[in-house]
Amino acid sequence: MLTIALPKGALLKESIDRFQAIGLDFSAFLDKSNRQLQIQTPDGNAQGLLVRAQDVPVYVEHGQAQLGIVGYDVLREKQADVAQLADLGFGHCRMSVAVKASSPYRSALDLPAHSRVASKFVNCARDYFQSIDLPVDIVPLYGSVELGPITGMSEAIVDLVSTGRTLRENNLTELEVLYESTARLIAHPVSYRVNPGGLADIVRQLREPLTAAV
Asked: How many whole angstroms separate alpha carbon 25 and alpha carbon 96?
C-alpha cells in the first residue's frame, strides 16, 4: 500500500485538496475531533501519515512514506536525500534576514563580523552567511525568533516571512531574501524508480494541473 506523508499546519488543507482531486481522500485529517495520525483512504488504496512538516522529508527519506508534501524551506534546512518531483505552487513564503527597523543596517553585508543571528533554520542561515563570506554566530531558537533583536540577544534573524505583518508589528525590517519557498512534492528515490502502488501515476496526475497552467 502506498503511504503518503502529509504536513501538519499551513500546508495541510491544500495538500489534502490536491490528493482529493485525484481520488485520494485524506479529509478525515481535517476533522478536529479525529486524533488519528494514520488513516487509509476510503477505497483502501493508500494511507496517509499526519506528521510535523519538519518530519515529512525524514519519513520519506527512510522509506516509511513513499510520497510527501513539504515546504521548500524544510527541504533546504533538513538536506534530506529525497527526490523533488514538482513545485506545487502553493504555500508561498520567503526566507529572509531581518533586523530592528531602528538599526543602521540596510543589507546583510552591513552586519558586523561575528554578529549574532537567531534562527530556527540553522543550516539555511549558516549556508547563506558563508555564501557572502560573513562570519556570524548562529543562535538556535525554536519559538518566537523575533524576540532575538527585540531583547538584544541577536543583531538579526533568519526566518520565514509570508505577509511581513509579524515583522512590522515587532518593529523589524527585512534586509535580504535568501530564497522563495513553496510546497514541493517529494518521493523516496528508490520507491519512485520501483513504482509501488501506482506511485508514478499519482505523480503524473498531481503534475497535470501544473503543466496545464504553464
From this structure: 35
**Which residues make beta-bridge pairs with 165?**
none
Measure Cα distances from 42 to 26, 45, 46, 86, 104 in Å: 9, 8, 9, 26, 58
Greatest CA separation for the chain: 60
Domains 2-91+182-213 and 93-180 share a fold: yes
Q: Where are the domains of the chain?
A: 2-91+182-213, 93-180
Q: Taking a C-beta distance cutoff of 8 angstroms, is the pair 156, 111 a contact?
A: yes
Instruction: Point out which residues pair with 39 in neighbouring strands.
Output: 48
Residue carrying C-alpha cell 530556527:
120
Amino acid at 213: A
Name every residue whose Cβ is closer than 8 Å to that of residue 105 and which is 6 or more positions away in sequence.
Answer: 99, 111, 155, 156, 175
Q: Are strands 83-87 and 183-187 parallel, antiparallel or unpaired?
A: antiparallel
Fold of 93-180: D-Maltodextrin-Binding Protein; domain 2 (3.40.190)
CATH class of this structure's domain 2-91+182-213: alpha beta
pTM beyond cutoff 0.70: yes
Instruction: Give the model confidence (pLDDT) of 118-153 as tens digits.
Output: 999 999 999 999 999 999 999 999 989 999 999 999
Report the C-alpha gap between 157 and 105 in whole angstroms.
Answer: 13
Please provide the distance, in angstroms rounded to a whole number, between the alpha carbons at the two ends of the chain.
32
